[in-house]
Predict the structure of Acyl-CoA dehydrogenase family member 10.
Amino acid sequence: MGLLRLLRRPPALWARSPTRGLPSPIWAQHPPPCRPSGGRPYKAVIFDMGGVLIPSPSSVATEWEASNHIPSGTIIKALVAGGEKGPWMRFMRGEMTVEGFLQAFGTQCSEMIKLPVPVGSFFSLLTSGQVAKQFSVMTEAINRIRAEGLKTAVLSNNFYLPSGESFLPLDRKQFDVVVESCLEGICKPDPRIYKICLQRLQVEPTESIFLDDLAHNLKAAAQLGIHTIKVNDAESALKELETLLGFSLRKIIPNTCSVRKTMEIPRDSLEKYLKNFLGSQAAVSGPMEVLQFSHGQSNPTYSIRLANHHLVLRKKPPGKLLPSAHAVEREFRIIKALHDAGLPVPKVLDLCEDSSIIGTPFYLMEYCPGQIYKEASLPGLDPSQRKAIYTAMNQVLCQLHRVDVKAAGLEDYGKHGDYVQRQVQTWTKQYRATETSTVPAMERLIEWLPQHLPKAQKATVVHGDFRLDNLIFHPEKAEVLAILDWELSTLGDPLSDVAYNCMAHYLPSDFPLIKGLSDLDVTQLGIPTAEEYFKMYCRQMEIPAAENWNFYMAFSFFRVAAILQGVYKRSLKGQSSSAAAEQSGKLVEFMSNLAWDFAVKEGFRIFKGLPTPKLSTRAYGVWASRRPPLLPGGTRSLATASKAPQAAAPKGVLIISPEALPEPVRELHGRLEKFIETHVYPIEQDLRNHQMSEARWTPAPQIEKLKEKAKSEGLWNLFLPVETDPERKYGAGLTNLEYAHLCELMGKSLYAPEIFNCSAPDTGNMELLVRYGTELQKTRWLLPLLDGKIRSCFAMTEPQVASSDATNIESSIREERGGYVVNGHKWWISGILDPRCQLCVFMGKTDPHAPRHQQQSVLLVPMETPGIKVIRPLSVYGLEDPPGGHGEVLFENVWVPKDHLVLGPGRGFEIAQGRLGPGRIHHCMRLIGYSERTLALMKERVKSRVAFGKPLVEQGTILADIAKSRADIDQARLLVLKAAHLMDVAGNKAAALDIAMIKMVAPTMALRVIDRAIQAFGAAGLNSDSPLAQFFSWARALRLADGPDEVHRATVARMELKR
Ligand SMILES: Cc1cc2nc3c(=O)[nH]c(=O)nc-3n(C[C@H](O)[C@H](O)[C@H](O)COP(=O)(O)OP(=O)(O)OC[C@H]3O[C@@H](n4cnc5c(N)ncnc54)[C@H](O)[C@@H]3O)c2cc1C
């Protein structure tokens, strides 16, 4: 199969993208060395430069001397006479500047012939573009040598140019190693320089061949055991080289090499067959040349030249095969049908199903000369040419997908419908059959893909491996002459071909299988982005752009990952200790992670696609006479209304139970609840244990895993209110009221908020960035925060001042050195100890003399900035709350650039107020969740525990406690929902009284409920076997952390008195 061939390409050094935290590179191996039949196993060919690859200095000197009336041989005589210490050799060792050399060498020449010798003009000629050009026969030979898997090197006595660069008029990419005397300080024939070259090539002397025009250089090489060729003229030197290597160096058929030992075909019977077959069409004579294409190793493919015929033969591989695999008969059929339908495919000539000819069935096609572009970035082309190539590729794909299957006689070429589903099943099965260890992303994909299959699928001919390097282009224009490699073709969903075609866009440029585009500026290169490419396809096909594009990308990468897993398994069998085998395993992980990234994006899309709730239809202020809506099944919903304090406020419904939420949000609520029950509760004890283990200051891997899952299910960033993010660019676009119901659910587990990227202090900081951040600040901080890749903290509270009054804070932000310098002592900074914490939102004073509320500013301080010292973690009732913790921190002369200031100097108070808008009530919403879960646990416990002859639940005091808790929770919830609703319909300012009231009420209510439950649990209630003890301590902390109760009470009282 086509992909397999990619694995056999010369691997490049490859590092996975740092943003993904992927494994480090290896893949520094070469393809197997050339072992021509009868030849020695050479691994490298080393070329001298002057006189071998480009004209020799002596021939240039002869020409120059003749035209400058200088006695012939002057230059060479001076060179030889100078010896090791003469200017020429010193120049070659890099010991002299160009100027110094010209002066010394000029003087030496002039003294020798007693005439002025203008060596500067000789130097100019020697290094000029018209002289210093590589011989084309040598270029062809080098390409050929490399195509056979041998390494190449240049080993040259060379010199520096006035520019400071060395003189190297060659394309460096042709060589694995370039060794130049001026860089090494050693010249040929010193044996050390040959050794350097061999060492860098990683070959033994006997494994290499050296070509030079100077006998003494060759002698030194031969003494080391290197095989040598004296170059008098390029033609005869290449002949000698061909004999040594055992393959031709001249007749270049692109992408071919001599036939590999294991892939040899019986030449005599093939030749006989061909002469028979072609005999009727043309006179046949002369020897037959057989080469193997580097393409199509799954179905080996050969270039056959016989007389004036040039054919391509494609056959099944040797050995025992599965009946349906490597079906060359199918390939022959589809190519023929498509050729007849006018598609650019090679013309097929014959299908031979008789295995007696060459051992397996095969078919013949006409050779199609042209250009194959192997790299997606199309190096060497200009932007307009690249654009044209991509457009042509897109057009030919459309042409393929437009083929009338019936008219082409291909109706039975594959099953109709459910292509993707069948593919997912097939590749899952294949993957399972070759699985070697658990790859988490593959597991998630195996679960996710079947649940997100496209609903409507068209059935067209699909290529199955449609890539740039499976196309032959016209050598001069952007026109596809032939589409190759039809092994995976069938009838199926055409969008899968388009997505597969775009995979290179997401792979790095040094990726070992396909050189991708992900780290290149495609727009600058003239290449359409994946999105543009997909749109181009849809436009041409006159179809609307499929919304589930990310699904198709996930599916494409999954399929490749499954294929690679098979390759890995096989390579493990073949090479027990091979590094390459180990790496192909890593590629499975890499590809599946990429696939999962797309699954996550698709999750977002589905979620974002939920209809936007219309605020005006459920604004605050509906009268009691309004009947609540009927629920399915005829029951009345609990949605109700109350009277608005502001007469001008729009009217709407206060939804007090999740059942009355608009359908999409209700559905979301259901999924969130199920997620928490299924995935979060069962691991809570492990997470508590992790928080007490030595690894507690590192994120718990289980949380990280669940974050990915939550993301993919669209249960992510639910907190950002629609009023802050009206275009739903960043979040789920829920109202505060809707979120209140969801946030309560998350509050039921202390670990849940982070899993859904809805935890403090990130939520407040993200909202701050959405509201006040510049585009630059958003790109740097908001996007990774929204992605859950980094975390943040908010630094306001200071030990030396009463920080419940934010105007007290003393830390300074001073303008200095074109930026701001921060000094201060902070504490209780939640999250700062988390290794993922990269941003500190810092509150300090820019102007202590400004009016009281204009002294403060907010600055974004990267945590990596020098001068930030976390002194210690603080604990709450002995709980350190790792990995984020609550830190005491010193900021000493911390400098940040000016553009890190938010909104402007003196705007800090305003921002802090805004920051604490919706975020202010999230804690209250969660406290309702703590309480609800606590009551549930209490009810369960008291039903099962017997004391003094009867279950606890029958004790009157327990019953009273349950009743009080139920009433407490419901009262507080109503107040929380009312505050949230008011924020939605009347704004944060109008909701100030209600916000203060719930902050005053919710923590103490939760403390009462939790305290009753702890009492009912007995001593077990204090232990960390249940969440009760932690709930209690956090509810207690929130009586301070969210601002002290007294401050909220004072606010409520002041406002009440004004009414
Ligand atoms: C778990 C936890 C996490 C925290 N996380 C952060 C964080 O991430 N970032 C951050 O900057 N800060 C954080 N804090 C700090 C928190 O915001 C402050 O503790 C809070 O604002 C109170 O400030 P203070 O501790 O300086 O108390 P003070 O201001 O010294 O007040 C002490 C007490 O004085 C009384 N008091 C104050 N004002 C009044 C009043 N008007 N009327 C009557 N009595 C009054 C109250 O009883 C109050 O508790 C956190 C605190 C905790 C416990």
Notes: Residues 726 and 733 are 7 Å apart (CA to CA). Residues 1-39, 280-284, 610-651 have pLDDT under 50 and may be disordered. The chain has six domains: 44-50+132-245, 57-127, 256-369, 383-605, 774-902, 914-1057.
